[in-house]
Structure formats: structure tokens, C-alpha cells
Design a protein that fits this description.
By secondary structure, the protein is of the alpha/beta class. It has 3 domains: about 130 residues, MutM-like, N-terminal (N-terminal domain of MutM-like DNA repair proteins); about 130 residues, Helicase, Ruva Protein, domain 3, CATH 1.10.8; about 180 residues, P-loop containing nucleotide triphosphate hydrolases (Rossmann fold, 3-Layer(aba) Sandwich). Helices cover about 35% and strands about 20% of the residues. The protein has 15 helices and 17 strands. The radius of gyration is 30 Å and the shape is elongated.
Length: about 450
């Protein structure tokens, strides 16, 4: 959908081509495009001259010499084209304004969602649709209006910024850009955004929109201006549409989520959500002592999420079993549960299948953890051997790598009656380079008292 800058570009082109032209007649080829009585629309407009243009949010307002206005919204695919009178019309041309100088302005809309109406100039801002449009960022000197509007709103700040009745001008593209610039997580409850941050939002909104208008608007999907000229602000976009790319500030992979149904890209490290609890991630090889460390962290008020248990529970679900049987047709299901011993042996023999299985299971685990984060009232510690191999680490505020030498690792595996050979084989591809990515490294090379001392030092430093 064309956003504020794109509409601004269209208005500038319309001003160049149609200002002071007199409308001889109006041809409405699709009645539904006009809101209200079509004959009234045509009768009111014909014979008037276009005296000026105005932008109200994403609406284009044609001011006419007869003290009326045409209000136009392009919606998804609306475009205006300026043509000679004798040129042919296309199947997507819906409204035609014929001028007295033998030229015409054609409203074209492939999707047919755009709308037009005519109102009196005396009250057009006081009646729908414009009475529901809030001020744009350039009309606001400070963020007091936003502060008052958001102070009791628990909805996500992205959803709040998209509410055109509060502040007009920011659509999906530019909201992502503004939130990235101001380092605000898009799901942050609006009421938790401070006045200082709202001032940053207002400043960034003006800067982003101004830059986009100078560049001619963002050409996303099929938007083009009246003359078919494409804007090039899309090359300046820092985060929108860049899921999987790396943040230039911190080198963390951008992540895409959906906020109230709108695709949203953000940096998990730069844009932390104060509305969700702290998440610690604990990782390390099999038998390193991850569970010991995680349980010690729970003494500091953290809730434990054990990814092994999450996987165990997922394996009991019919949905997951169906997915894995599709991947591994010979998979053994015993008493409505997956035969884990058989599966371990199989994955050792077929490492490629292991990777495919992990891709399926890990995605589900991340979703479970995300859901827990959204509903938990206390901080969480998540224990996962695959922390850095998935998007799980992106959710973490801090990460802990538990290191251990192989001799003690084997002793740990034997003490818990694991099949040491199988465990070490499964662990053979464990990526120890992730130790460098962790916030903290804990060495499980002594007794439990030493381990607890290392954990406590994280909280009391």
C-alpha cells in the first residue's frame, strides 16, 4: 500500500500537471469507487477548477474553485495517470476527469480498493473519513499527543503507531524503520514506551518520511507515481524486508515476526522488549552439567524451561509424530510415544536425517519458548544444547556456555546411566566455537560449590 511519502510524490506530480485545470466532465466507469451518490459526485465537480492539493495522512485532497473538495485514497494499487483526451482507456481505468484543454486525469486501480468522495470545504475535516485521521509527524512539535494517547494502551507499539487516528503517516514499512532507529522492540506495550523514547520516535518519523519523500517514495511491490516514476528509498531501508540479513549495528541476524498480522522485521539484540521477562540461555555439550547450572539459576527467581523436556512432550503429540513419520517412515511408535533409543541409533547412522529432524523440532521448541515468554510473570532460564543453532539465542538477554573436559563428561554420563558411546557420538558434531558467542562461560571442572560460586558471580558482579 502506498504510504505517506508515496502519496506526497503523487500530489507533487498532480500539482505539476493538473493545477488550475477546469474539469469539463467526469466519467465513472466503476460506480463502487465513489462513496456516496455518483450523480452528486459528478454534478458537484463538473465545471470547477482544481485550485490546490492537500495531503491528510494517506488521503489526497483536491481543493476545487466551487468550495468543495475531492477526497481520494489510493489503497493498495491506486494510481493516477495524465493523458491526452484522444488516448484509449484500459480495463483498470475506473474514473476519468476530462479537462477543458483536451487532456484527462485517469484513476487506475488494478485491485479496485481505492475510494473517492466529494465534501464541502467548510467541514471536510470534521466528517468521515478525514475526521478520523490524526496529525502527521510534521504537524507535531513534541510527543505530548503520543504520550497522552498511549499512556493506557497495552497494545504493541507497532500496532499503536499504525493507528492513523492517533498519528498519521507511518505505515508498515516506515514503522519498522522508525522502531529500528529508536531501538524499540515492535511488541513493546505502548504504555511502557517512555516520553523520551516517544520523542525519539517522533524525530525518527520525521527524518525517515522526509528522506523517503526526497527519494521519491519506496517502490515496494507495484507502486509507481503518476508518471510511472519509481521511488528509490527502498535502497535506503535498513530493516524492512531484510529478514535473515545482519544488523549493521551489532551483526545479529534480523528476525521476522507478525505483530497483529503485520509482517515485522527487527533486530533481536538492539530492540529488546521490556514487556517480557528476562531470558537466560544455558548451553553446552551432552553431560556438561547444563541442568546443574540451570537449577542453580532458578535459585535467583528464574523459571526453568528444559528443552529436552519440551522435545519429549512434542514427541508425544500426534501432529509431531506425523511429521517425523513422514521424514522417517520406519520410525518406531510405542505406546503412543516415539521410541527414543531406536531414534538415537537411527540418527547416528543417518546424520542428514538428524539435520532434517532438528529443523522440524527446533522450530516448534522456539515457538514454545516464545509463548512462555509472553505469558510468564517471572524471568526464565532455558536449557538447550542447540541454543546457538536456532533462533533461540536471539530471544536471550544473556547466554551461558557450560564447558567440561571429556574425562569428567564421561563420568557424568556414566553416573546418570546414559549409553556413553551413543551420547559421545551424538555429541561429536557439537560446535564448541559457540563458546565465543556466549555472554558467560562456566567451567564445570570442580565440585558443585565451585559451580554455584560461578553462577552467583553472574548475578552479584
Amino acid at each position: 500500500m502506498p504510504e505517506f511519502p508515496e502519496v506526497n510524490v503523487v500530489i507533487k506530480k498532480l500539482e505539476l500537471r493538473t493545477l488550475n485545470k477546469t474539469i469539463k466532465s467526469v466519467e465513472v466507469l466503476r460506480l463502487q469507487t465513489i462513496e456516496g451518490d455518483v450523480n452528486h459526485f459528478k454534478k458537484t465537480i463538473e465545471g470547477s477548477t482544481i485550485s490546490s492539493f492537500e495531503q491528510v495522512g494517506k488521503f489526497i485532497v483536491f481543493h476545487l474553485s466551487n468550495k468543495h473538495v475531492i477526497i481520494s485514497h489510493l489503497r493498495m494499487e491506486g494510481k493516477y495517470f495524465f493523458k491526452e483526451e484522444n488516448s484509449n482507456l484500459g480495463k483498470h481505468d475506473l474514473v476519468v476527469f476530462h479537462f477543458t484543454d483536451n487532456t484527462k486525469l485517469v484513476y487506475n486501480d488494478t485491485r479496485r480498493f481505492g475510494r473517492m468522495s466529494v465534501e464541502s470545504e467548510s467541514n471536510y475535516r470534521d466528517v468521515p473519513p478525514l475526521c478520523n485521521v490524526g496529525p502527521n509527524p510534521f504537524e507535531m512539535k513534541n510527543a505530548s499527543h503520543l504520550e497522552n494517547a498511549y499512556k493506557n494502551k497495552s497494545i504493541a507499539i507497532k500496532t499503536a503507531l499504525l493507528d492513523q487516528s492517533i498519528m498519521s503517516g507511518l505505515g508498515n514499512i516506515y514503522t519498522d524503520e522508525v522502531l529500528y532507529i529508536t531501538k524499540i522492540h515492535p511488541e513493546t506495550p505502548a504504555k511502557l514506551v517512555s516520553r523520551a523514547k516517544l520523542e525519539e520516535i517522533l524525530k525518527a518519523s520525521k527524518e525517515v518520511l522526509e528522506a523517503a519523500m526526497k527519494a521519491g517514495g519506496s517502490t515496494i511491490h507495484s507502486f509507481t507515481s503518476e508518471e510511472g516514476i519509481a521511488g528509490d528509498f527502498q535502497v535506503q531501508l535498513q530493516v524492512y524486508g531484510k529478514n535473515g540479513d545482519f544488523c549493521p549495528r551489532c551483526d545479529t541476524k534480523f528476525r521476522k515476526i507478525f505483530v497483529n498480522g503485520r509482517g515485522t522485521t527487527y533486530c533481536p539484540k538492539c530492540q529488546k522488549n521490556p514487556g517480557i521477562p528476562t531470558l537466560f540461555g544455558v548451553t553446552g555439550p551432552i553431560g556438561a552439567g547444563k541442568s546443574l547450572v540451570s537449577n542453580l539459576i532458578t535459585k535467583h527467581g528464574f523459571k526453568l524451561l528444559d528443552c529436552d523436556k519440551i522435545v519429549h512432550d512434542l514427541y508425544k503429540t500426534k501432529e509431531m509424530q506425523d511429521k517425523l513419520v513422514h521424514l522417517i517412515p520406519d520410525l518406531k511408535i510405542v505406546n503412543n510415544d516415539i521410541d527414543r533409543a531406536w531414534l538415537k541409533s537411527y540418527l547416528i547412522k543417518f546424520p542428514n536425517k538428524k539435520k532434517q529432524l532438528q529443523k522440524i523440532v527446533h522450530k516448534e521448541v522456539v515457538e514454545v519458548v516464545e509463548n512462555e515468554l509472553k505469558h510468564s510473570k517471572q524471568p526464565i532460564v532455558v536449557e538447550a544444547a542447540f541454543l546457538f543453532e536456532t533462533d533461540l539465542y536471539l530471544l536471550c538477554d544473556k547466554t551461558i556456555f557450560v564447558n567440561i573436559d571429556q574425562e569428567k563428561q564421561i563420568a557424568n554420563l556414566e553416573s546418570r546411566h546414559d549409553d556413553v558411546g551413543k551420547a559421545l557420538l551424538l555429541n561429536s558434531n557439537f560446535d564448541y566455537s559457540n563458546m565465543k558467542k556466549a555472554t558467560y562461560v562456566i567451567n564445570n571442572d570442580k565440585d558443585i560449590a565451585n559451580l554455584e560460586k560461578q553462577v552467583n558471580s553472574i548475578f552479584y558482579r
